[in-house]
Structures are given as C-alpha cells and as structure tokens.
Amino acid sequence: MRAKVVLGSLATSCIAVAAAEVSYGNNSTNGAAKQLLQESMKWMDLYYDSEAGYLYNLDSKALLHDTRSSVWYAAGLLARNEGDDADQAAKIVENVIEGQHKNVSSQWYGDYQIYPEEPTVGTPQYPPVIYNSWDPNWRGFVGTTLILMLEEFPDLIPHDTQTRILESLYNATVGDSYRVGGVDDDNLYASYSNPAIMRAFMSSWTGRRLNDSNMTTAGEAYAKEIINLFERADTLSEFNSGTYAGVSLYALTLWSKYLPQSSLMGEHGPSMVSKTWAILGQLYNANLKNVAGPWDRSYGYDMNRYLSILALHIWTLVGKEAAPINAKPYTMGHKDDFAIGPLVAILAPYHNTLVPNATVSALQTFPGTHNVSTSAFSPPWDTFPRNITAWLSSNLTIGAESFSEDVIGGPAKNPSSFNPAVVQWSRNDGSVGWLTLYAQVKELNAMASEGRLELEYPQGNKTSTFTFLVSTNSKHGKRDVSSWGDVEGANITVEGTVDLTYSVDFAGYVGGSGKTINDFEYWNFTYVMPGDSTEIPRVSLSFGLD
Asked: So what's the pLDDT on residue 29?
C-alpha cells in the first residue's frame, strides 16, 4: 500500500518557497503570438460553459465537457485578462482540481478526469483502461499548465486557489511516479519524449517549490535519462512529429524558462530547444509548408490540412500566413489541438529567442536542394538507432528511416501514425501531393536520395506486401485513379523484386474498400511478391514532377 500524501498547511506555507530559484515572469505576448492567443481564445469562447466552469467538448459530444482543453483555456483567460476572465479561470481550475483522482492506491492516482461527467474510474461499470477511461499523460498536460499559470500570472490567481494548485501538483507528481515503462500496460520510458519531458519538469519544479528534495532529485534523475538520449545525436527520440515535436518544444521551454541553471533542465533546456529546431529547419520545405518525412507520429499527411502544434509554434515565428495553418484553423483535421494555442502564445516571447536564425529563415524561404542525414533512438523498442535520410528540393521532398524494432507501427504501436517513408510534392494549383509507406513490418531498410526512395524488408518473404497510401487529386485532377499515371503532379515509376502488377483501392469518407486515416482519404497502391519468390522483398520508387 502506498502512503497517502497529506499537504494541509504545508502547501499554504510553501507558496513563496524557492522564489530565489524559480522566478516569476511578467508575460507580454505580442505580434504573431498575440494573434494566435486572440484567435484561439475567440474560438474557445464559443465552447465555454460559464455556468459549469468548463469548456464543452470541442467535438460537440452532446454537451459533455472536457478537462484538458478547459485548463488550456483558463491559461488563455489569464493572459487575455479582460472583464471577468480571471474569475472564470479560477473557477475552471478549482473544478479541475476537484475532479482529480484521489484514490492513492490506484494506478491513476493524481491524474485528472477526461471529462467531469464520466463515471468513477475503476468501478465494474467503468473499468480502468489506460489511454481510454484514463490518460496518464494528462497529469503532465494539466500539471504543467497549472505551473505556467502560477509562474506567469500569480497576481491574478486567488491565494486559496494557489494553495490548492500546489496540493494538486504534489499529488499529480506522486501519481506520475507510479508510472514504470512495461508495467501495468504503461509505455512511459525516457524515449517517449513529450510526456517524459513534462514528467521530469513537473517533478523538479514541484519539489523545489515545496522543498521536497526527493521529488526534485527524482525529476533531475529522469531528466538525465532524457538528456543522454538526446545528446546521442541531438534529436528527440520521438522524432519529427508535427504534433508531438510541438509538445516537446513546449515542455523544453518550461525547462528553460522556469528552472534554474543549477537544474540539469535549466542548464540543457535552451540548447535542446535550439537543436530540435535546427533539425526541423533542415527538414522543413517552406514552398510546401511541410516538414519532410519520416514522421514517427503524425495525425495527417499534409500540415496544410491538419492542425499540428508545431505549426502553432511556426505561426508565432513567421506569422500565420507563412505558417502551415488554414485561415480558419478550426476547419482543419485534428482541430482540437488549436486549444493549446494560448500556451504556445504565452511562451513564444521567450521560446522564440532560442530558435536559430537559420531555422527562422528556412521557415520563410526554402534554402535550396539539400540532403539530411541523422538518427534517433527509442529504447526499448529499437534494436539500434533509426537511421534517417531525406532529400529536399524546391517542390519535392523524400524522407525515410531504417529501423529494427520489436513492434509494428513504431514505439506507439500505431501503423496509422508511424510513417517511416514519406514523399511530398507540389501540384500546379499549389496544393501538396503525398505518398507514405504503411507500416507492416518490424524491420525496414530505407534510403532517400535525389528523386528516389529505396525500401527493403530484410526479414521479409514471399508473403510480404508493400502498401503505399497516396493522396487524392486536387479539384483539377482526375476523380478516379487506377494507375500511377492518374496520380496528379508526380511521375512515379517502380521497380524491385516485387510483382510489378499492383492493385489500387480507395479509402473514402463515405465509401470505398477502406476507412480514412486521421480524416485523410487516400488511394491504396499495393505490391505483393511473386508466389514462388525466394528473394528479399525490395522496391524502388523514382519521382519526377509533371
């Protein structure tokens, strides 16, 4: 049985503790960041239920509410600070803390409700299913937001609410310490970058604030694991994700801004932000407004059509029109992540000082044809580091990674988000065409080079298949696709040990042989091996532009 943590008057007496190490900031959000704050808040205002003190679910789930987006909205209310914004923010925070899971012996102790109307997690009618009825990462998402609010807007938060925030953070940090990768279906290792970075920060910051040296030490020790993995090649283990690179940059900014130099996180955070942006800048094509593949975790195949948190950071750096953001962001795929906009905007004045000038330039103007070669490592899933190659020209990008893993679909075990080989190209109307290899194997040899993508399954056999998901055409292209010649904007030729006779199927919004993936329709080009083949499955694709 784990001992229950009781703060009582301890939290009250510790509100001002460690002020010498963790300084408060006076936030001033302006320019493009101010626009992001205003637009994201105006959108969320439409969903706010002032009577309940929660945001309605952003997918309009029959008037249900949502916890995480409500806390993000509360931070935005404090940043905007108009009318009764501060009072509403305090109301939201009090509600969220009241809904925190309080059973100290449960795996989800200190976590926050997914939504306030849900039944009690762990009852026979509502069993605990990790990442479903409860999400352990929400300790980090909610907890780090509460810390940001204390750091940036202490004068706007009532004293009693600050006390309860500190107690909530303590309990969330204790609960997060229950997480062990590989135990009880949990997958949190230092290589699971975005929640790992948040976990280390929350533990170290809360320990310092409450004078709990064990908590501080635990956070620093966990940060050391993350830093060691990063410094191997100056890359995040969770590599090149439009969504989660954005979260990791947010969390690394918390390391950098709110922890002292005596902390490993305060020491290494700024350089990790800069180096993460450096590789993203090399992989970004400003003409396509996309980061070239491969993508370890992606919620779409074209950043112009799904809302990525990385794109929100880019918005603050180069402006909305130059960023991969639709004029109406809430119409994009994965639009719910627009709710994190206030946090990105609040941190932007500091965060953007850490972004290399070369990256800011690359986000605005494509620097010319070039190659990129790097690697990333995600133990325990990777047998060896994933080797990453990419070739970028003004209107065509090709990126791929070789890997050997013990799961299919990358460390997240999700073939729908793991994209180990990706090609994107510009079409005549300015839209982006794309092709991605659907993950079906544990081991892949892949190489991207000028106009060419080479793929091999070293452990494959005559039953192996290569499945390529390909974008639908623009309104100017053919509606129906039955061959590579019907794909708009690219000339694609294929060779290899596969049977060169391929099948083409469609996955559509309301029909076809398959379902959309992350709201994207696609054409499915599939190659099989000859029935009597004894060769290693291998395929090479060459690309030209129409």
From this structure: 52
CB within 8 Å of 9: residues ≥ 6 apart: none
In terms of Cβ atoms closer than 10 Å to its own Cβ (0-12, 13-18, 19+), residue 345 is buried
Check if the beta carbon of residue 248 is closer than 8 Å to that of residue 193.
yes
pLDDT in tens, 270-323: 999 999 999 999 999 999 999 999 999 999 999 999 999 999 999 999 999 999
- Asked if residue 415 has a cis previous peptide bond (ω within 30° of 0), the answer is no
Tokens of 233: 């090649």
Q: Which of 415, 390, 420 is nearest to 404 (CA)?
A: 420
Residue 404 pairs in a beta bridge with 443
Confidence of residue 60 (pLDDT cuts 50, 70, 90): confident
- At 169, the pLDDT band (50, 70, 90 cuts) reads very high
Pull the structure tokens for residue 29.
């959000």
Helix (H) or strand (E) holding 465: strand 465-470
Q: At 28, is the pLDDT very low, low, confident or very high (cuts 50, 70, 90)?
A: very low
**CA–CA gap between residue 433 and residue 490 (Å, rounded):** 8
Phi, psi of 541 (to 5 degrees): -115, 130
Closest C-alpha among 366, 410, 374, 414 to residue 392: 366
Quote helix, strand, coil % in the chain, to nearest 5. 35, 20, 45
**Mean pLDDT rounded to a whole number for the chain:** 94
65/117 Cα distance (integer angstroms) = 7
Ramachandran assignment for 259, one of left (phi > 0), alpha (psi -120 to 50 degrees), beta (any other): beta
Query: Which residues make beta-bridge pairs with 386?
Result: 376
Q: Cβ atoms within 10 A of the Cβ of 514, count?
A: 15
- DSSP output for 179-194: --TTSTT----TTSHH
End-to-end CA distance of the chain: give it in Å, rounded: 66
The 3-state DSSP class for residue 382 equals strand
- 3-class secondary structure, 79: helix
Gap between the Cα atoms of 44 and 62, Å rounded: 17
pTM: 0.94
DSSP state of 486: G
Instruction: Report CA 487 to chain centroid distance, whole Å.
Output: 30
The residue type at 44? M
* DSSP character at residue 118: S
pLDDT at 2 over 80: no
The residue among 424, 440, 421, 422 whose CA lies nearest residue 432 is 424
d(C-alpha 451, C-alpha 458), whole Å: 23
The owner of tokens 């963790």 is 22
HSE-CB for 134 with a 13 A CA cutoff: 27
